[in-house]
Design brief:
Strand order of the largest sheet: 1-2-4-3
Bound molecules: 3-iodo-tyrosine
Shape: globular
Helix content: 25-40%
Order of helices and strands: HHEHHHEHEHEH
Oligomer: single chain
Number of helices: 8
Distance between the termini: 45 Å
Structural class: alpha+beta
CATH class of one domain: Alpha Beta
Radius of gyration: 19 Å
């Protein structure tokens, strides 16, 4: 197969409102995204998850190698297996590996090694970074590419009214084994995806202002 893609006419996306209105509308939507740790067991159809994954798969990637795979798990036994394995590494983290400083930084989030929400949430998406493409091609900017795709996955889920949690148990190579994936797939992030629990609470956090997060050079 030749890698040489012919050029075709680009059809730019044109929002129905002027740029400022569109930008503000989207900010209104995305600013409601919160990382949650309390999920409902309300079902989410596979078709919704497929659309969210397709959206993530539109991310740009180095040389368009699309070096990602999204493993979507709803199987209760497999989720439970993953919960048990994650709780094991997290127990080690909280008891031995984390510095006092790190634990102090986590206090606001009231996190601990109990990951029972994995049993409750309808879907667990394990994002895999591909060291090579399925055709054996070299990939480029792997972390950047998969990071962008993961951000788009979170955004697409939020847009569909679903909540997520970005979870990075460490180490997480055990996931490859539990899921029967090849050596070529490096577990990158674990993302519980579903509706928040009715009584879900989140930390009262503030986000940085435009002046703090930007510098304009005009
Ligand atoms: N991985 C652990 C700890 C943890 C670390 C960070 I940095 C967070 O923002 C949240 C949690 C856990 O999942 O509990």
């Amino acid at each position: 197969m030749s890698n040489h893609a012919p050029q075709v006419k680009h059809h730019p996306y044109a929002p129905s409102k002027p740029a400022l209105d569109s930008a503000q509308d989207f900010y209104d939507v995305i600013s409601k995204r919160r990382t949650v740790r309390m999920f409902s067991d309300r079902e989410v159809p596979r078709s919704v998850i497929e659309s969210v994954i397709l959206a993530a798969g539109t991310a740009p990637s180095g040389a368009h190698k699309q070096p990602w795979r999204f493993v979507a798990i709803s199987n209760k036994e497999i989720k439970h297996k993953i919960r048990a394995a994650i709780e094991e590494v997290e127990t080690e983290f909280y008891e031995n590996r984390a510095s006092d400083r790190w634990l102090e930084d986590l206090e606001d989030f009231e996190t601990n090694a109990d990951k029972s929400y994995i049993d409750t949430v309808p879907w667990l998406i394990v994002v895999m970074a591909l060291r090579k493409t399925d055709e054996g091609d070299q990939v480029y900017y792997l972390n950047e590419s998969v990071g962008i795709a993961t951000g788009m996955l979170l955004t697409a889920a939020h847009h569909a009214g679903l909540a997520t949690l970005t979870h990075t148990p460490s180490p997480m190579n055990f996931l490859r084994e539990v899921l029967g994936r090849s050596e070529n797939e490096r577990p990158y992030m674990v993302i519980p995806m579903g509706y928040p629990a009715d009584d879900c609470t989140v930390p009262d956090l503030e986000r940085k202002s435009i002046d703090e997060i930007s510098v304009f050079v005009e």
